Amino acid sequence: MVNPFVRLRKSIANLPDKKKYIEVITASLSIPVLLSVVLVNYLNIQDKRSTDKNVPTITEQPKEQSPTIITIIRESSGTSPTPGVSPVISETPLPTRAECIKDVGQISILTPKENETITTNPLEIDIQYDQGEYCSVVWRYRINNSNWSNFTDNNIIIYNMDTGKKTLDLQVKSIVSDKSTTISRAFTYQNSDAVSTPTVTPSPTGTTE
Asked: Residue 167 is inside which H or E element, if any?
């Protein structure tokens, strides 16, 4: 029996143009190699795309701004401030005083009392005024419809007044408005002792009503 390899070798040897057939065979064998290379490259590309889809996309989150810390340094009483650091002084508005009432509050004559007989010389007129939330006031007086004295906020003292029945008119007015009130008191005065200074204080020489 003839060996098939020997038969193939003799067939090739009997070919008229060996080179042409060898090139055809070589070309035929190179085609599968090229297809293999193309297939491998295609599979690699598919694997890479699949991998890229599975990888989660990482987006950069905006950085949170750190909160600003403000330190207030207050200078304690009796201690020295920290060198190089200026103390922060907080100005606290002072409470404002409530505006007073622009009117005349409750006022009364304590001395002399109504229809009282007075013998002391000088005569001191005692006035009681409860100011409270009202504005300050001043007053003036007159005896038996004489001229008004000047306005004042001092005590009223009358020296060496003549004996007889007297009517005291006391007018009180606010110093911040034209509000005023007038009260009267009737009494009897007996001048038993004359003093050395016959001066009336304050002098009842104001403008007439």
From this structure: strand 164-174
